[in-house]
Amino acid sequence: MVFYNLLIAWYLQNKRDLPWRNTTNPYLIWLSEIMLQQTRVAQGLPYFLSFTEAFPTVFDLAKADEEKVLKLWQGLGYYSRARNLHKTAQYIATELNGVFPDNYKELLQLKGVGEYTAAAIASFSYNEAVPVVDGNVFRVLARYFDIETDIALASAKKEFATLAFELMPKDRPAIFNQAIMEFGALHCVPKNPDCGSCVFNTSCAALQKKKVDQLPVKLKKLKIKNRYFNYIMLSDAEEKTLIQKRTSKGIWHNLYEFPLIETDKEEDFEFVSNAVQQESFFANPIISMRACNEKSIVHKLSHQHLHIKFWKLNVGGEVENGITKEELKQFPFPIVIHNFIESN
């Protein structure tokens, strides 16, 4: 009771005014929760506003072309979220007549909706007493109760969810879930939290034991794979270029890119030049080739580091199926390629 009362009092005084907090509309809450997975609020908010303007209802999103959805998502990363969002909108619009499931168990059946998102929608839209457990909740509870369970373990989520459920006032689950997440996001932050001004500074076990910087415990290290991408930007006599769609499973599925030569390590001009001459994605005579960036751009994804070089290839004649610089801007690209296009 003391924990809950202090938490809610803090929340009511410090909470951010965010558009998805001023509604119980499950479509808007679902949209915000999918966008905020792996994304900071400051980064996600402009995307949320753009999406709700372009697609004010689930029917609008369902009717949209996937490329438009991906274009609006461009820069948010984890593009499978956008593809799943689109497919789920189509399912809800056509199979459920636009009505979202009204409970945690059924929400969990939706594509792209995991335990956290289902709990958020169920509690915020329907006031169902189900706890949300994200990184913020792990951190707040681990510190307050001095829990040393490795949060990378599959069993950790159930342990923390059980504890959160015990603490939650069953008649006010929405405000409890919002409060504990907001407290972790704004005050009980990962590094150097201001424990001196914390409302829990007389009752937090980690603070008493000087263990704040040691919790939560996360032992499993993610193995990072390095990949080496060489993008070939063709330019013919009319300055038209070629792009291709990534249709294989994996990163950036259904986004566009320039013709790609992937290598096992970072390669020099001679290697890439020889590789280009052996490729069959164009039939034009090569006039010249140069590196657009001498040093690789390192684009970090959650499980991969991409070392990217762009190469400008001037060719004679007219490239078949070539597109102009203006047409390029209509397609959804990974943000690293989009940024290259904008600056060249």
From TrEMBL:
<dbReference type="GO" id="GO:0051539">
    <property type="term" value="F:4 iron, 4 sulfur cluster binding"/>
</dbReference>
<dbReference type="GO" id="GO:0006284">
    <property type="term" value="P:base-excision repair"/>
</dbReference>
<dbReference type="InterPro" id="IPR023170">
    <property type="entry name" value="HhH_base_excis_C"/>
</dbReference>
<keyword id="KW-0479">Metal-binding</keyword>
<dbReference type="InterPro" id="IPR029119">
    <property type="entry name" value="MutY_C"/>
</dbReference>
<protein>
    <recommendedName>
        <fullName>Adenine DNA glycosylase</fullName>
        <ecNumber>3.2.2.31</ecNumber>
    </recommendedName>
</protein>
<keyword id="KW-0378">Hydrolase</keyword>
<dbReference type="GO" id="GO:0032357">
    <property type="term" value="F:oxidized purine DNA binding"/>
</dbReference>
<dbReference type="InterPro" id="IPR044298">
    <property type="entry name" value="MIG/MutY"/>
</dbReference>
<keyword id="KW-0411">Iron-sulfur</keyword>
<keyword id="KW-0408">Iron</keyword>
<feature type="domain" description="HhH-GPD">
    <location>
        <begin position="35"/>
        <end position="186"/>
    </location>
</feature>
<dbReference type="InterPro" id="IPR005760">
    <property type="entry name" value="A/G_AdeGlyc_MutY"/>
</dbReference>
<dbReference type="GO" id="GO:0006298">
    <property type="term" value="P:mismatch repair"/>
</dbReference>
<dbReference type="InterPro" id="IPR015797">
    <property type="entry name" value="NUDIX_hydrolase-like_dom_sf"/>
</dbReference>
<dbReference type="GO" id="GO:0000701">
    <property type="term" value="F:purine-specific mismatch base pair DNA N-glycosylase activity"/>
</dbReference>
<comment type="similarity">
    <text>Belongs to the Nth/MutY family.</text>
</comment>
<dbReference type="Pfam" id="PF14815">
    <property type="entry name" value="NUDIX_4"/>
</dbReference>
<dbReference type="GO" id="GO:0046872">
    <property type="term" value="F:metal ion binding"/>
</dbReference>
<dbReference type="Pfam" id="PF00633">
    <property type="entry name" value="HHH"/>
</dbReference>
<keyword id="KW-0326">Glycosidase</keyword>
<dbReference type="GO" id="GO:0034039">
    <property type="term" value="F:8-oxo-7,8-dihydroguanine DNA N-glycosylase activity"/>
</dbReference>
<comment type="function">
    <text>Adenine glycosylase active on G-A mispairs. MutY also corrects error-prone DNA synthesis past GO lesions which are due to the oxidatively damaged form of guanine: 7,8-dihydro-8-oxoguanine (8-oxo-dGTP).</text>
</comment>
<dbReference type="InterPro" id="IPR011257">
    <property type="entry name" value="DNA_glycosylase"/>
</dbReference>
<dbReference type="Pfam" id="PF00730">
    <property type="entry name" value="HhH-GPD"/>
</dbReference>
<dbReference type="InterPro" id="IPR000445">
    <property type="entry name" value="HhH_motif"/>
</dbReference>
<dbReference type="GO" id="GO:0035485">
    <property type="term" value="F:adenine/guanine mispair binding"/>
</dbReference>
<dbReference type="InterPro" id="IPR003265">
    <property type="entry name" value="HhH-GPD_domain"/>
</dbReference>
<keyword id="KW-0227">DNA damage</keyword>
<keyword id="KW-0234">DNA repair</keyword>
<keyword id="KW-0004">4Fe-4S</keyword>
